[in-house]
Amino acid sequence: MRNTEAVLEAAKKAFAELGVDAPMRDIAARAGVGVGTIYRNYPQRSDLIIAVFRRELDTTAEEAERLAAEYPPAEALRLWSESLARFVATKRGFASALHSGDPAYQPLPAQFLGILAPKVQSILDAGAADGTIRGGVSAEHLIHALSRLADDGPDDAAAAGPSMTDVLLDGLIVSPRSIEP
Amino acid sequence: MRNTEAVLEAAKKAFAELGVDAPMRDIAARAGVGVGTIYRNYPQRSDLIIAVFRRELDTTAEEAERLAAEYPPAEALRLWSESLARFVATKRGFASALHSGDPAYQPLPAQFLGILAPKVQSILDAGAADGTIRGGVSAEHLIHALSRLADDGPDDAAAAGPSMTDVLLDGLIVSPRSIEP
Amino acid sequence: MRNTEAVLEAAKKAFAELGVDAPMRDIAARAGVGVGTIYRNYPQRSDLIIAVFRRELDTTAEEAERLAAEYPPAEALRLWSESLARFVATKRGFASALHSGDPAYQPLPAQFLGILAPKVQSILDAGAADGTIRGGVSAEHLIHALSRLADDGPDDAAAAGPSMTDVLLDGLIVSPRSIEP
Amino acid sequence: MRNTEAVLEAAKKAFAELGVDAPMRDIAARAGVGVGTIYRNYPQRSDLIIAVFRRELDTTAEEAERLAAEYPPAEALRLWSESLARFVATKRGFASALHSGDPAYQPLPAQFLGILAPKVQSILDAGAADGTIRGGVSAEHLIHALSRLADDGPDDAAAAGPSMTDVLLDGLIVSPRSIEP
DNA sequence: AATGAATGAGTGTTCATTCAT
DNA sequence: TATGAATGAACACTCATTCAT
């Protein structure tokens, strides 16, 4: 495509302002392109969404790798969950789309998880091996849950207390404190 | 309204079959009522949704009270989370609507939490008091999170491992097992 | 509907100018009405088409009755075929739609034939009884064929010779001329 | 054109599967060719259609010649009408296109008749000469009519009775039976 | 000559919402 | 109060056709 970059840029902005269900027409107009052009290159809306977020998604995936190398598993997982939260929180409507059941978004979860799960699974496995992370939890489930919790809570959410994400991780990570009284 | 009951019953069925974003027309037709009638009594869609689920929501809230009376806080919380999951899982699209940002659903979270939070807060407070539940967590946050996790995970979700809801609660509840080796 | 008449009138004109596949928008605009109004009253396009032509269709059907009463079967059939031809020839695209297979028109043939066939069948039966019309031909088949032949032939069609409709009828009617040399 | 054969073959298949209004893209893709290439060689869709069916059309035309040589005119005409019916019935949407009025198909009838009419006219003339076929009927009219009747009738069409095509021919052919009581 | 990316008009269809009766 | 007819904005999606390469 001649204007790949323009389309992705336009879509990114549109997604940011209107959410991932922004009208195609809108995106096309921003990109100075006909709607057909977008449909040709991204037959499914989910194709466009993934393409738009692909770079950042890859970054998030690589982050998992990097953290796994630098930190012990439990710590890596905690840090990475922030990375994921940052990603999800930024994409308006992405989380909803991910879990919506709307046929337009149907391939989304698989693609999303396909990119992230393998890297995260490594961390989980390492943690299970050294006993710092509870075993038996699949990366897919965990990412799924983390992405759900990443969206804003009630308005006064920031107010106080630990984030639910942290609580979830606390339930997953075998803290030394709890086993060594 | 003359036909309050008919409308609520119709809406309940429509929500069950088509999700909470079922066409108003559809609901009105099932109730044998004009759409205008519904709009008069429930100006916002969220008003209707809450009205429809009010009874069950109250039941769920009372369940919290009952469990708090019968069980120690931690146990009560675990049991109640199942109650909530049952509620959320049954209402097609309710969870999505709850967090969607769609202006049509905007008042939904507040009303939803307004009914449930006080009762749950009691459990949390009791647990914090006797040291079995980590303090500093607001009921609103927790309910918010639990309702998000109640929706289906990836397709192979049922497969194995603990549910993310359980993991979250594990992070919240100070299990005797973990402190008494 | 408040504007039934306006819609039917508008549709009739639109059909005349653009054919029975005229854009709904177009029809609505001519009628000074929203598209939704048309969809509400005529969910299927074929419903609108039949409604528009209903009066003339009924007239054509009654014509069959009248002719059957006034003329011997063979003669009545010939005269009625002209009536049908007049009807079909006036409705741009009607004949095509009738046989198109397009799902939008799917119910059309049945409705069309449902109105006309019974009356014509009476003529055929009477003719078969008195030996002036070949038996074994169903009214539905015949109408189907006549409506197909009624559309314009090649441009120079009017030029000369008997119409194909007449030839078809000649094959159907046991003319006295042919048996009495 | 380099790939004339591939295009015609692809178009033929596309026409068979999707009808003569198959998307150009589709045809081009099947042929492994750019759409532009098709447009260059067949500026009008009707050009492509005729080109695709040309060979079979010629066969049908030659069939007329062959039958005229082997059989008496009336018999030849009957046999040929079957040949034509076979051709028309096989080409999805061809009959509709032939009579549709859609500008895209506008030149189609003339080209179609240009190929077939001369041969059929010979049969008609011969029949008129020896008194077995009613005179005054143009081949164009007749072919036009036959091609219209070749499409399926109502669903229960096959059920019973003579085909309308046969009836038409009965009206055209001066059967010995009818003149020799 | 061939390619195929790009264009964008065009259409069916759905529904929230209003308001005359 | 209740009704439900009417409105019309909104959107997805398809393709014929053009034209720069």
TrEMBL record, chains A, B, C, D:
<protein>
    <submittedName>
        <fullName>TetR/AcrR family transcriptional regulator</fullName>
    </submittedName>
</protein>
<keyword id="KW-0805">Transcription regulation</keyword>
<dbReference type="Pfam" id="PF21597">
    <property type="entry name" value="TetR_C_43"/>
</dbReference>
<keyword id="KW-0804">Transcription</keyword>
<feature type="DNA-binding region" description="H-T-H motif">
    <location>
        <begin position="23"/>
        <end position="42"/>
    </location>
</feature>
<dbReference type="InterPro" id="IPR009057">
    <property type="entry name" value="Homeodomain-like_sf"/>
</dbReference>
<keyword id="KW-0238">DNA-binding</keyword>
<dbReference type="GO" id="GO:0000976">
    <property type="term" value="F:transcription cis-regulatory region binding"/>
</dbReference>
<dbReference type="GO" id="GO:0003700">
    <property type="term" value="F:DNA-binding transcription factor activity"/>
</dbReference>
<dbReference type="InterPro" id="IPR050109">
    <property type="entry name" value="HTH-type_TetR-like_transc_reg"/>
</dbReference>
<feature type="domain" description="HTH tetR-type">
    <location>
        <begin position="1"/>
        <end position="60"/>
    </location>
</feature>
<dbReference type="InterPro" id="IPR001647">
    <property type="entry name" value="HTH_TetR"/>
</dbReference>
<dbReference type="Pfam" id="PF00440">
    <property type="entry name" value="TetR_N"/>
</dbReference>
<dbReference type="InterPro" id="IPR036271">
    <property type="entry name" value="Tet_transcr_reg_TetR-rel_C_sf"/>
</dbReference>
<dbReference type="InterPro" id="IPR049445">
    <property type="entry name" value="TetR_SbtR-like_C"/>
</dbReference>
